[in-house]
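haha ok so turns out i had the wrong file open the whole time. this is the CORRECT one, sorry everyone. sequence first:
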Amino acid sequence: MFLTPTIPILDRAAARPRLAIALGDPAGIGAEVVLKALADLAVTQDCEIAVVGSRRLLQNAYQTLQKSLMLQGRSRVDLADPESLTILDVPLAESVEQQIALGTGNAASGAAGFRFLETAIAHTLAGDFQGIVTAPIAKSAWKAAGHHYPGQTELLAERAGVERFGMLFVARSPHTGWMLRTLLATTHIPLRQVPDA
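then structure:
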């Protein structure tokens, strides 16, 4: 199911939280991470998810990954089919898409990844989602596009209007159920500066 950014997408009566996944840098591994994660029932059973990004780029990544995995001789390909996903389509001009090459982050891919996250933030602040999941970006591509944030967390904090924030990693064992939550104490500084931070 494909949605455009102008269509309200939140079912306020839904019991499961509604999350936006910003597609990340389209020249990087963002699409692969998203497609593999959404193929896992453990990821999707407790929430409703909408991918925020270019539908066409996501479909192209899906086809490329399928071919690659088949060539590797895998009998089972664990990728979510974009046709089965809810996508808040953030279309890119064809001239921009032509500048995006897998494995090569540049200003075009940085601008696209930034736009995907900005769209997810705007819809979340409007109440369409309860949270945002971010796929990987290339900070160098963001900088090439003129966006000088240290990372996605800082952009999220700025747009949310908060001064105290942090990046939280959560992992759960599928076998034992234990949960690990890790909050970064420092970010984006050289290791020798950590003791003074």
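The two ends are 46 Å apart (CA to CA).
again sry for the mixup
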